[in-house]
Amino acid sequence: MNYKGLLLLAAAGVWTLHAVARPPNYDETKIAPYTLPDPLAFSDGTKLVSPSQWPQRRAEILSIFENQMYGLIPPPPAVLRLETLEHRDVLGGRATRKQIRMWFRNDDTGPKIDWILWIPKGAAAAAPAYIGLNYYGNQEIDADPAIRMCEGWLRNNEKHFVAGHRASEKSRGSSAKSWPFETLIRRGYALATACYGDVAPDDPALYTNGVHALFPPSVPGVGNNTTAIAAWAWALMRGMDMLEKEPAIDAQRVALIGCSRLAKAALLAGAKDDRFAVTIPNQTGGGGVPLAKRDYGENVSTQNEMFPHWFCGNFRQYSDNEAAMPFDQHMLLAACAPRRLYVSSFPGKWFDPHGEFLSMKAAEPVWRFLGSPGLPATDWPAEMEPAIGSHLAYHRRPFEHGIAPYDWQCYLAFTDRAFQMSIDWQPTRTDTWKTFSRHHFTVDGCPCWVAVPRNPRPGNPWVWCLEFPTAFDDRTGVARLVEAGYHYVYMNVGNTFGSPAAQAHLDAFHRHLVSKGLSAKGTLIGVSRGGLYAYRFAARNPDKVVCIYGDAPVCDFKSWPGGKGKGKGSPEDWIGLRNHYGFQNEAEALAYRENPVDLLEPLFQAGIPLIHVVGDADDVVPVEENTAIIEQRYKALGGTIHVFHKPAVGHHPHGLDDPAPVVDLIKRYTARWDTENCRIK
Predict the structure, then answer these.
(1) Pick the catalytic residue: 174, 260, 301, 344?
(2) Residue 562, φ and ψ in degrees, nearest 5
(3) What pTM was computed for the model?
(4) Which residues are within 8 A (CB) of 311 and not within 5 positions of it... i.e. 6 or more apart?
């Protein structure tokens, strides 16, 4: 039976749907009316009247899921022994990497789990952490040959170089995007992960050939006996045991994450173990976050037929019988309350992304009942419009299944708030710009500052005005961008006209911003002579630029300060420019071919859009000698440029009476960069 909706699963290397399973429904109009059990009512129908009753109801919910769906999660083992296999500094001394083998017997026999940890160094306090299970081994996260190869049973997968159910050396570093440990270190977080193949083989016939050896004897698929998902959840809880023993990690600030089937395991562990402060199930699919009673996409019948080792025998009674379920997945989400929860989706119909959102909304009343805010979205948010609250968050984004860089950006925005994480700029002083905190510091011998948004946008984007950053800040729209979550940054390199020496300082500043956790790409603003700085930086670093906003920008220094055309020029600045560039004479300056008007090809190749605002009566930086040439040449290349003309306006004032059009364009192009970060491959 070849169901169109199962193509994604086939590509992922999972099992073929048995012919007896009910075909998935992908038609919203065919969803029959359904009633969800109330998470704020006990199984006998008694309504909760006080938050003090919630622990009892939560225990009841967890018992239902263990007995009716996932099987029992065993208690902690009698023995948990940690053997350090590696302890070294990495990332230029910015982090410690540990490889820890977890044993469950007093001798080196029986099942074991190999964990790998990256921990920030030099932090003033113990670091918060992310923990999760990976699919194909720790060696996929970093190509370093010192990372131990996974020894557990793995699903065969050509993309991940798994054959004969064993990992291959060829797989080293192949999943780095999904586990961006360097980004986490920059943001002040530790990361701990292990391969789920070390825990329980993901196979219906073999899944008990792992840590199940430590559990009471069980018969696969019978009653509420422990399943593979329950075993993976148990392993995550043992990972928390390990983190509690690590003094450099703050075990009170741990976020649990997983993707797909391992998101199911993470959700189960997060619901069961209240030591996890944040639970992040990324694209769980059916049997995780989506409502089963909705009967859209994956259904209980397909779950039981395709993945019999994920769900216990008692769950079989609900195949083609979802209406009889005395529970649904919103109750498992609710069991995480009042702790924090973040759910994410992608456009896979089999995974029912709308059902994930509806499940969150059905669980939301529990947080409100317990005195915490709910999800800041009433309707299903559009793609790339995350709803991030203090306790609940949700987003959906395009492209393929998996944890993408954009997902991590959103999760970090959420946990930064939850764990009260902020960038330590190590300022020499702090003041206020507009209504925002502004930190002053020095980089490469130059004074710098950053104005910090109250609620940073995921990914920590920035705008960088390279000259005159506070002269026309209302008219250029930067205050609105900071209010929208952008950092506003500046480095004072003096009146050096974008010279090679100035560019070296700007490079150092960009490295500093990224090392502190800001996005690798941002928006450059070139006001007047700042156009020389912005365009020359962008041409040398097109991979670091989202877009360029030039406001009456100098695009050819022969025009200003040279004054070799219609403009007034500035003889004093013309001499200064020639000195800063090291020109021996004026003829050498006039023959120079690295003005902005000459540097458009790398910008076009990188797809960088341009935005210009000009006064048509500008006699200092004449439009026809600067912006008009940029516009003509960039369009000829096929590039995108927007030019806003101000009739009868000279060089001043810069900006627009209402800068909304420019602000909207910068937001649009930042969102385009965010969308590219949704790609995993």
Answers:
(1) 260
(2) -60, -35
(3) 0.95
(4) 69, 70, 71, 227, 229, 287, 303, 304
494-549 tens-digit pLDDT:
999 999 999 999 999 999 999 999 999 999 999 999 999 999 999 999 999 999 99
Q: Name the token pair of 543.
A: 């991979």
Q: What are the residue ranges spanned by the domains of the chain? A: 1-70+284-401, 78-250, 429-676
Torsion of CA 491, 492, 495, 496, to 10 degrees: -50
Which amino acid belongs to residue 271?
A
User: Has 87 been annotated as catalytic?
Assistant: no
Active site residue 401: yes
For the chain, how many residues are written?
681
Both tokens of 87, joined, read: 């302890």
- Looking at the chain, the whole-number percentage of residues with pLDDT higher than 90 is 95
Task: Determine the Cα–Cα distance for residues 411 and 50; give it in Å rounded to an integer.
Answer: 31
Strand runs (DSSP E) across 532-586, as ranges?
545-551
CATH code of the region 429-676: 3.40.50.1820
> What are the tokens at 51?
């938050």
Confidence tier at 217 by pLDDT (50, 70, 90): confident
The residue from 160, 391, 401, 439 that is catalytic is 401
CA 209/CA 214 separation, integer angstroms: 10
Question: Which residues have a Cβ under 8 Å from the Cβ of 50 and sit 6 or more positions away?
Answer: none
Q: What is the DSSP string of 139-161?
A: GGT---TTSPPP-S----BTTTT
